[in-house]
Amino acid sequence: MAVFVTVGELHVALVTSTKASAWLVNVDASAALAMPGVVGFLDHSSIPGSNLTGSSKVEEIFASTQVCILLAGLTMIMIIIGNSDSDSDSKNGNNSN
User: What is the pLDDT of residues 18-30, one digit of tens each?
Assistant: First the structure.
């Protein structure tokens, strides 16, 4: 199966909680941001206005440090990944090495 990647295309990866009934103390994205291809991240502070969603406005889009994470799998941050010309070539099977 061929995977075609467009130069300049962005992808996202969700980082979710692995524990239930836990408090999110902080988010340190420095290790992810240091990885090749990572161009940024979004968390609860990235949402303009309210971070709450759902019909009763009690669900968070991204977990914040102000509430207890009740369920494992709650989205904490979104990592944004880009690609360069060389990344695109190798992913498309055009490795010139």
Answer: 888 888 888 888 9
